[in-house]
């Protein structure tokens, strides 16, 4: 059997590592063709030794030289290249059967767009790219005929609850859907007194009660900006207006999201909180393969609880709904300011509660641009918002 050639962008991250874990369970079906990382070169080297891809991409020329030398010394023939264009070239290669887009933040936009334009199968973890360029991205998919499979657990769950048609190629429809419900664990501070939030540390913020994830998305989960970004992501992925997207707090993180239909039925997708489940789903779609995740034991879960989110505690949710309604450059500004603020918080330059304040102030300060014609417009608004947010932080 000819093995499917997989490119993993952001292979040293949390999603990247989980993707390689699933692939390693099915090496008769999948082969790692390309790996990319930014700065964790020794981790990437270990991955190259294990999977022997055709290409590996790193951030800088210096890192590429080190990796190339080390791999050569071990007799590994992986070609080593570096830089943003090299990642985009890997993403767009006709040799890929599927691309996992798992770079974090705005840095993932151009590679994901390159994969969308190339056609083929795109597994999208990088929600920021849809937040920033939803229309451009979905148009690119339509034009190229690419198939998009959502990796974000909520969107993957919704996808599984909808009639079985892959996204892309115009095969997707929402007949009879009245609402999608994104579940949210509430993060580590669900029950923390509001006045105590100012003093929480980066260590506390990244200690998610249910999921093990990268640092940026973990902080986003604590502020609930992650759910905010996911509202915008759901809008673009499923073509559903914001009034039909709801968030429900579900601390057990067993139901990954739900779809309710006009007849009163509601479908949910359940599983342990393990990203290998949506990754395996996307890899094998429409088949099913083992992911390595433990099966869900309902008796030991016992109770599933739900509550409506408190918009005063989670102001990021309101900001995201506002950004989606205003459209144009506003979601780009929201995303950029959030990235800058989360970074500053992780570096202990601002307090936890400053993150959403800075996003709010940046959204107020940057005048919105109504239509974003091309990727350069989007990147320009991203740059502008970052420098305004940096000023507020300083
Ligand atoms: P992570 O921080 O663990 O890993 C990020 C990866 O991106 C690393 O491989 C890193 O080398 C690469 N990277 C970072 N900056 C880069 C740059 N400037 N250029 C090139 N590569 C760069 O992140 P993660 O938690 O794996 O998340 C990845 C994406 O998946 C994010 O968009 C996140 O929102 C989304 N996601 C993650 C999870 C999860 O459970 N971790 C769940 C749903 C969605
Ligand atoms: Mg998610």
Radius of gyration: 20 Å
CATH H-tier superfamily of the domain at 4-150: NAD(P)-binding Rossmann-like Domain
Q: Decide which structural class fits the backbone.
A: alpha/beta
Bound molecules: nicotinamide-adenine-dinucleotide, magnesium ion
- CATH level-3 fold name of the domain at 4-150: Rossmann fold
> Could you describe the largest sheet, including whether it forms a barrel?
7 strands, parallel
The termini sit apart by 57 Å
How big a fraction of the residues is strand?
A: 5-15%
Element pattern in H and E: EHEHEHEHEHEHEHEHHHEEEHHHHHH
Total E-strand runs: 11
Overall geometric form? globular
CATH class of the domain at 4-150: Alpha Beta
Identify low-pLDDT runs.
none
Strand order of the largest sheet: 4-3-2-1-5-6-7
Count of helix runs:
16
Overall pLDDT level:
95
Description:
The chain is an alpha/beta fold. Among the domains are: 4-150, NAD(P)-binding Rossmann-like Domain (Rossmann fold); 327-394, RNA polymerase sigma factor, region 2, helix turn helix motif (Rna Polymerase Sigma Factor, Chain: A, Orthogonal Bundle). Helices cover 46% and strands 15% of the residues. It is built from 16 helices and eleven strands. The chain has helices at 14-24, 41-51, 61-73, 84-92, 109-118, 127-144, 153-161, 202-206, 215-223, 225-238, 276-284, 298-301, 315-326, 330-346, 354-365, 375-393, and strands at 4-9, 30-36, 55-58, 79-82, 98-101, 121-124, 147-150, 177-184, 245-249, 255-261, 266-270. A seven-stranded parallel β-sheet has the order 4-3-2-1-5-6-7, with helices on both faces. β6 (121-124), α6 (127-144) and β7 form a beta-alpha-beta unit. The longest helix has 19 residues, at 375-393. The radius of gyration is 20 Å and the shape is globular. The N and C termini lie far apart (57 Å). The model has no long low-confidence stretch (mean pLDDT 95). The site of nicotinamide-adenine-dinucleotide (NAD) has 26 residues, from α1, α6 and α9.
């Amino acid at each position: 059997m000819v093995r499917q050639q997989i490119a993993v962008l952001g292979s040293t991250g949390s999603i990247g590592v989980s993707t390689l874990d699933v692939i390693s369970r099915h090496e008769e079906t999948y082969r790692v063709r390309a790996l990319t990382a930014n700065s964790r070169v020794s981790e990437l080297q270990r991955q190259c030794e294990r999977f022997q891809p055709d290409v590996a991409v790193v951030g800088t020329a210096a890192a590429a030289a080190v990796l190339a030398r080390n791999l050569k010394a071990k007799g590994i023939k992986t070609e080593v290249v570096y830089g943003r264009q090299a990642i985009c070239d890997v993403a767009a290669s006709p040799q890929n059967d599927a691309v996992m887009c798992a770079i974090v933040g705005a840095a993932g936009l151009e590679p994901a767009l390159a994969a969308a334009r190339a056609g083929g199968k795109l597994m999208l973890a990088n929600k920021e790219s849809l937040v920033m360029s939803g229309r451009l991205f979905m148009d690119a998919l339509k034009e190229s005929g690419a198939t998009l499979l959502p990796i974000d657990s909520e969107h993957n769950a919704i996808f599984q609850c909808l009639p079985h048609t892959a996204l892309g190629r115009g095969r997707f429809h929402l007949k009879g859907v009245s609402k999608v419900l994104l579940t949210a664990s509430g993060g580590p501070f669900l029950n923390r007194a509001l006045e105590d939030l100012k003093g929480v540390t980066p260590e506390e913020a990244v200690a998610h009660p249910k999921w093990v994830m990268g640092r940026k998305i973990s902080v986003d989960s604590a502020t609930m900006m992650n759910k905010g970004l996911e509202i915008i992501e759901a809008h673009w992925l499923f073509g559903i207006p914001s009034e039909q997207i709801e968030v429900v707090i579900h601390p057990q993180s067993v139901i990954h999201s739900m779809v309710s239909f006009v007849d009163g039925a509601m479908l949910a997708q359940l599983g342990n909180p393990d990203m290998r489940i949506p990754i395996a789903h996307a890899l094998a779609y429409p088949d099913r393969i083992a992911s390595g995740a433990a099966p869900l034991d309902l008796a030991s879960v016992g109770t599933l609880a739900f509550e409506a989110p408190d918009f005063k505690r989670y102001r990021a949710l309101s900001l995201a709904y506002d950004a989606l309604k205003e459209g144009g450059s506003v979601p780009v500004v929201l995303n950029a300011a959030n990235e800058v603020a989360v970074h500053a918080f992780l570096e202990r330059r601002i307090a936890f509660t400053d993150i959403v304040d800075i996003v709010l102030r940046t959204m107020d300060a940057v005048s919105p641009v109504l239509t974003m014609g091309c990727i350069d417009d989007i990147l320009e608004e991203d740059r502008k918002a970052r420098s305004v947010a940096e000023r507020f932080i300083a």
